[in-house]
Amino acid sequence: MYYWDGQRWASTLSPDHRFRWNGTTWEPVPPPIYTPAFAPPAQREATSWTQPLQIAVIVRYVLAGAYGLMLPFLMGRYMSQVMQQSIQRQQEALPPGATPPPAAFTAMMTSMMTGSLWAGAMLGVALSVIAIVAALKRWVWAYYVILVLIGFTLAGSVFNLINLAVGGALTAAEPQPPVLTRIVAYVFTPIDVLLFVWMLIALIRRGPWAMRRISY
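^ thats the sequence. predicted structure below, dont judge the formating
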């Protein structure tokens, strides 16, 4: 940066900073390389798949939210039967002379089960609302979450289809849920399969929400 000219330390740069003294001659100074402190976020643009994919996700979760609100009414009696059967089995397994649970115990557990149904319904509606907003806003992180959630839903649907194929043998000893809930589950299965496959292909070929990355 400096050299001794015989009297003082002088800068090796010329006054216009365009040349540098190497001890024998002036050399051009290479232009500075600008490196931004923060890389700009990746930009994406919508494609022909983006809007139809958004609409499909929104419709799917509107239906799921409406069905979630109906579940406490549809499943209340079924869950009460399951609870009563479970308590009855526990009483039958008690040793002779053991004190059975009080009669109010069954009512309390049934009330707790009903409360859990409503809590689950509210959680399902909240998730549906978040998914709808995420589809409208095209949140990238939410795309992966929705894809995983639909995948888990399909895993449960596989069990339902196997149970249907074997004539309900997997759950024959248990109280059966209402027919309407099973019909809805079977209807949602092909919808979720198609949506899951479409979202996966869109992610691989174009990106989240089928939005293509812009290259500059």
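Residues 44 and 69 are 36 Å apart (CA to CA).
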